[in-house]
Amino acid sequence: MKKVFLTSVLSILALVLVHGGLKPGDKAIPFSLKNVDGKTVSLSDYSSQKGVIVIFTCNPCPFAKAYEQRIIQLHNKYAGMGFPVVALNPNNPAISPDDSYDNMKSRAKEKGYPFPYLKDNQNIYKAYGATRTPHIYLLEKSGNNFKVAYIGAIDDNAMEAGAVSKRYLESAIKAVIEGNKPSPATTKAIGCTIK
Q1: How do residues 136-181 score in pLDDT, each as one tens digit?
Q2: Which of 24, 49, 88, 94 is the most buried (most CB within 10 A)?
Q3: pTM to 2 decimals?
Q4: Domain 2-193 indexed as CATH 3.40.30.10
């Protein structure tokens, strides 16, 4: 078991060193992480889906809080179309105590998250290249794997949902559903730096 874990960690680190993070078109890096319900959730659990909206987010960041309701709405709108949300908290609770596992459980319960909220072991966000909360990775099914279709922001107005004029993630999902490549395929993620 230790050998398998060590091999997985080394593989992820090698990808980080080689790629410096994922880019659109890259094969998604698999993960198996602990959900707030105590169960392990893996990317492979979504093999029957058309894609997955992977969101690196956290509890205390004002940007993450501003997007919380929109993330819930995105899951409710697109999960039935084959694009569920999976949220990962990448922050180190020793540096950001509000991001402890117990606080994650409380936040998910308080807000009624309809999607998994996973505790990143601080390897996955590095492998993906996430730097902010929130940071979006839209994955699309490609054969037996997932590949990255879009990376960046949810939309163009973090703090005022009513003032959004460009819905980058929704446009990317629609493009993937129609068999096209998202344009833009990357935008700048706006949010708090990962701790």
Answers
A1: 999 999 999 999 999 999 999 999 999 999 999 999 999 999 999 9
A2: 88
A3: 0.89
A4: yes
